[in-house]
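Next comes a concrete protein, fold included:
___
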Amino acid sequence: MELDKIFLAGVERDFIIEIVGRSVIMFIFILLILRLSGKKGVRQLTLFEVAIILSLGSAAGDPMFQEELPVIYAIVVLFSVIAIYKLISWLVSKSAFIRKILEGEPLIVVREGMFDLKHEKDGDFSQMEFFSELRNQSVEHLGQVKTAVLEVDGSMSILFYPAEEVKYGLPLFPDKYKPVDSLNNQQPVSCMYCGLVVWCISDSGSCTRCGRKDWVLALKSIRV
């Protein structure tokens, strides 16, 4: 295998230095454009804004190494994209309809200590992802959570029960999230899918809320 042929065939060594300069220039302009967008982090980005970022990356990438593309073309594209972004952002601030189309709506994940089932068939509904996000915010079980909302930027907003109002709930950590072997327990159990807590399971063994048949011992520990 000839490494020189693979890595250096047709390379113009003088243009390598030019690529470095082009890359530095475009990187600086990308930072400037992102600063003008007003966003401070990826967690704040909506799907619409992610599309803008991808557009910026595509426009900035080609002139970094394509000799026939002057850098000024990319700069014009970058400022055009950010102008479009500012215009659409203004329209979004004026129209709830446009905002809903471009950014979506907040999704209620947990309501009164149980998973909200209205969006269970949505593509965005992933129980394991919600488990992970809730654990990251030190939630041990759903009985600690009054309301949890998945924001349009992907962050989770949580309203907790006061310590004296915490109730039995579905455990979220793997060591406790295990099916019970027997349904005859002195401790309430929770549906492993929707979080419904009951002291007595129906004769069919099914959850009266979602119809599933998998149960786990519920917890009632308060947040530390």
